[in-house]
């Protein structure tokens, strides 16, 4: 298999302009984006991406989970495609690059190949996976999970948001529910470019992260029930304060994560308090505990310790507690051949690099179950992500997309 020449590079300015243009859709309040899954803004972002794909001569496929597949034909009609992509949806207070860099970096590969009239044996398909973030509809990586057979489509369609709206209904409402069977596509390989969402690459002055593994994740939704009562007239001994119970459980969550230092982490980022009134003691709270580790045994131990600690705390306070596993995946080891393609690309192009374990979940973690998969990462400023202040440089984006292109094109095989 011939490797691409080191002079094969993407158009960094064009990639950056595309990132800035997409960021105009669903603007946040502080310079980032609020383009949550299957909202009107998501639909608008999809339409812009589709228009760019059509201009690049790609044919668009759309499956029943709204996953978008923009295909550039190869010279061998029987060769399985090489897939590349990420997601266009964002957090409510998300940045301009999380996920979007991977989708538009994939599109930039196609544009560059078109510019240079380079043909590949295998087709190349640029993908936008639906609902990677999982913030409006849990769990994260919902549509890639259905694609990989982790979830059933009916179960995914029945996920509800904070307002009780079903995922399947909202996907249809915005006009992006396709007819194609989910998971029917076969892949030669899948590559995903993403910002690191952590501080290691920037701190060490590395251009590229070669992702060898993905950290395992567990989301447990905890519901604590007490009794709503007046904050001013309810004596302290007679209170059943679900909010206080949650506070004590969250302290336990922190201690549990520290007990498996340094690689384990844990916190609760999604919290609902009811009735959420200034002068009412909370009678009910619902929150999701997020535990992560590269060791599945550690994840299971943290899950068990959470249930024991929360049950003890709530039992002592006269509160009831229940648990629901609402998301998670085991630690991931990416394909050795695809990882080598990424590492070799960085070396061929002269970019500094290091191996990384991804601390965040990505669509690649699920697709790795059904196809050889690897990830490329670029630095982000201060490791900040899931925040409107998320930032990367044009040079980092270009380097990441260059490495992505070389790994994809080498795998797709240039036709001389």
How would you describe this structure to a colleague?
The strands form four sheets. Strands 1, 2, 3, 5, 6, 7, 14, 15 and 16 form a nine-stranded mixed sheet that branches. The chain has a four-stranded antiparallel sheet with strand order 10-12-8-13, with helices on one face. With 416 residues, the protein is α+β, with helices and mostly antiparallel strands. The model has no long low-confidence stretch (mean pLDDT 97). It is 35% helix and 23% strand. The chain contains twelve helices and 17 strands. It has helices at residues 12-22, 40-55, 100-116, 142-147, 153-157, 167-173, 200-204, 242-258, 296-317, 336-349, 363-367, 394-412; strands spanning 59-62, 68-72, 82-86, 119-120, 124-128, 189-195, 208-214, 216-225, 229-230, 265-274, 280-281, 284-293, 320-329, 332-333, 353-358, 373-378, 414-415.
Helix percent reads 25-40%
Main beta sheet, described?
9 strands, mixed
* Strand runs, count: 17
Give the helix tally: 12
Following the backbone from N to C, one meets helices and strands in this order, namely HHEEEHEEHHHEHEEEHEEEHEEHEHEHE
Quick one: overall form? elongated
Radius of gyration: 22 Å
Strand percent estimate: 15-25%
Q: What number is the mean pLDDT?
A: 97
**Which residues sit in consecutive blocks of at least 5 with pLDDT less than 50?**
none
What is the CA-CA span between the terminal residues?
Answer: 11 Å
Structural class: alpha+beta
